[in-house]
Amino acid sequence: MRNFIKASIIIFLTFSFCLYNPYSIDAFGWGYKKNTDHQVPEIGEYKNLLEKYGAYYVDDSGAKTIYITFDNGYEQGFTEEILDVLKRESVPATFFVTGHYVKSEPELIKRMVDDGHIIGNHSYHHPDFTILTKDAIQKELETLEAAVAEVSDQKDIKFLRPPRGVFNENTLQWANELGLVHIFWSLAFIDWKVSEQKGSEYAFDQIMAQMHPGAIVLLHAVSSDNAEALERIIQELKKQGYTFKSLDDLLIKKLLPNGLYN
User: Fold this and answer.
1) 71 an active-site residue?
2) Does the annotation mark 220 as catalytic?
3) List of domains in the chain
4) Is the pTM value of this prediction over 0.85?
C-alpha cells in the first residue's frame, strides 16, 4: 500500500509538471504578473522560452520607450480617428490584422502603411495555432501577407501576434523558422468588449497605472474608450519623458552593441 501511494504521488507530480511546463506541447495563453509600480511585469518561465526563439514581450533595456500595437480583427469605426491622433503626435504603431480586416478595410490598411505604420500578422482566419500543423500555420501567415501586399505598399511581414495569444514551443519554433518574430505584450487591459466600454478616463487610468519603461502596449481599435483617450495618453507620457518607437526600432536596438542606439 505504501508503495502504491508513493507511486501515485510521483505520477501526480509528473502530471502537474506537464500541465505547467511551458516547454511542453500543450497550449498556453499569454499572461504576466501585473503591477502598478511601473516595473516590467514578470512572466516566469516564459522568459526563457521567448529568449530561445527570439520573441518579445518588452524592451528590457531600461529606456523609457513605448511600442504601441493594435489588434484589428474587425472594424468599429474608430481606426481612422486613431490614425489621425497617431499622425498628429508623430507616433508609430504596429497593427496586427486578420484576413477579414484586410478584405473588409483595404483603404485603412493602405493608410496605415502610407502613414508609416507597420502591419503585423495576426493570421488570416484567426485560428488556434497550437492545434495546426506547421504547413497549416504557414498557409495562414502567407495568405495574410499576400492580402496585405495586394492592397498596400508593404510587401512582406516580419512580426507575428498569435491569435488569442495562444502558443506553445512548436508554434514559436515554426514561426521562427518561417522568418517571423513573435510579439507579445507587457501592458493590456479589457478593452475589446464593445458593449462594455467604460469611458475614456478608464482607458487612460488603466494605461497610466501599468506603464513602465520598454512597454509593448496591446490595444484594440474597436474600443471607443481607446480612441477618445489616445491623444491624452500620448501627450501625458511624452511629458513624463517617454518616447514612442516602432517594432523595427526594437529589433535594431537588440542587434546593435550597447550604447550605439539612441
Assistant:
1) yes
2) yes
3) 30-255 (3.20.20.370)
4) yes
